[in-house]
User: Fold this.
Amino acid sequence: MIYHLITNEFFKIIFRKRTYIGFLLIFILIPFIVWAIDDGGTALEKAIYGQLSDSFFFVGSLLNGYLASYLILAILINHMPFLSTIVAADIFSAEYSKSTFRFYLTRPVSRGAVLSSKIVIVICYTTILLGFFFGYSLLISTLWLGTGELAVFDKGILFLPENEIFYRFTIAFVASNIVMITISCLCLFISTISRNSVTPIIITISVVFIGTAISLIPIDFFDRINPYLFTGYINSFLVAFNDPIPWGHIRDLLTICIMWSGVFLVLSFYFFLNRDIID
Assistant:
């Protein structure tokens, strides 16, 4: 039964135009950014070298596809919560607004199974979208600028060997995906109690905005609560490029995000199972 429900939900989202908004934006934007990085490569290298160029002579170029991908991810990751909530915001509220639940839930299928199938689709969509973001960034950047060592900022300039880069990007993807799934679960929960698709997106992005502000404002109270907010881990994928990798921070990220995801999903089940679909 659950397999058929998941298949049904899958066909629903692939025939909705808004499903492809995130993919289209990423597809168009990333080549433009890579071109801009390539065009401004000299100024970028000077900014990275800083005063070291006055004391040392460098052979070769730091500018390559891995550095471009790293910069793209660091710049655009804060905008991914908006793209990852597009399907989650619509997956319930669209059913309410079109009154399809009045007919859908009269069939011999439990509400829990319906909700579970939608949760699977939201998680899969979020993972595929973020995977496309990471993979497409690496593909376009390396084809355009080539490969080499990755220079990142970690207590100065850190040069990562080429044989470690894919491993570190994979860790970065997993860490970032956990956070995005948590954000999608929040949007899914709001969608279960909303009758339109706009409200869940607005509330979710507002929560992310407030949480991000808390993580950036240097106040003692905010510093104490920030480690327990999933919004404080949006940029934590960057720690995958530190040496050594702070596994304790990644463990905290997984713990906090899984905890918040569980809270949002439990609330989703509670409100959906008890909601009057006639209302």
Q: What stands out?
A: The chain has a mean pLDDT of 85. Strands lie at 150-153, 157-160. The CA atoms of residues 208 and 234 lie 9 Å apart. The longest strand covers residues 150-153.
